[in-house]
Amino acid sequence: MIKKSIVLFFALLLAGITLQTASACRYTVCEIGYAEFRIDHYRLLFFKDTDVSDALAKSFQRTAHGALLDANVKSEIIDVNQSRTDTVITYYNTYKKAHTPLAVLIAPDGRAFPFELEREMSEFNESVWDLLEDVVFSPVRRQIKDEIIKSFAVVLFVEGENATANASVLNEIKGAMEDIAEMQNSMPKPFENPPQLIIIPKDQIINEQVLLWSLGWKNDQEGTPVAAVLYGRGRMMGRLLSGQLLKKEYIYNLMTIVGADCECGLDRTWILGSMMPLRWNRKDRKEVVNWHHFDAENPTVKAEMSQILSISPGRAGRVGTNTLYGYTEGAIKIIKSYESTQKPAAVSPVHIEEETSTWDALLSTRIYWIFAIIIGINFVVLLILIRRKRKQ
Question: 158: which strand partners?
């Protein structure tokens, strides 16, 4: 009797753990990529010093607040006479030029992109608008946003100076895109459209400085071809690819991870690739719902995603270390799920998602409580039986 109770106890415990794991991994990496978290925020620091009057500081604060409401960039006024943060002062000391107001865009990993502003009020306001536009908008970022919502990934290719090298890299990219398009219907949640290719010609690089900087592009890479796999809300999977990493298998592997289930064993630094500074408005959110049939900003959905990220292991270091390139085409299993083949009902996707997500969350919670109660009762019974056995 005691042995049976012990077996039952561990069976129920294992079932509960399995159920929780299955419930926590019902999103793909691509879907989680559409959510925004605090770690995705950029900081736009405007330094108030002797070259900046109170009027200029207030004007910047007012303009930036309105322009960045729907972006993952938060503006701050830093008074250099009051700030005691060594890191912030380091940015100021590094980029400050005499008699020129300074603003610095700080990436989540601490990298900096400086902007110089005009000092006179009439010219200052115009320079602020230009700065804010450069921070969150560019022609290529608009193109990326349009394409990334309709398909599960975008491959961004930046041309180098050598036409032969460009053609060779493009051949590798297109080969990887063709291979992933052939198997996208076998992914956990098949995608309607294949990955899209966007090219930045070498003569347009100067207009995309903030975008390339946010992806990790460095000055010493100028003149050489580079590429990035983008997904979700302007996230980069892995790191910026250059040199020997511009191979078909590497690009294919990155796109495979984007389309894979968000398995609990997958490092969270790969689930949440670094996000570019980007304006993402209500229209964009609705487009995601229309194309992918879920709302990444729904509080319940976002809470579930946060739970997945908390379960997934994390490693120290920046996203894009060489650990990724150890993956092979068989490293992540792509299994077609029955649920993903079912078409949504012909009603508002937003309404469906809100109701379904809430119900799923409540149902999951009830199931967990039921299992907890059953396991608890079984444990108590087991203790009672053990005590009785000892008394005999």
Answer: 200, 226
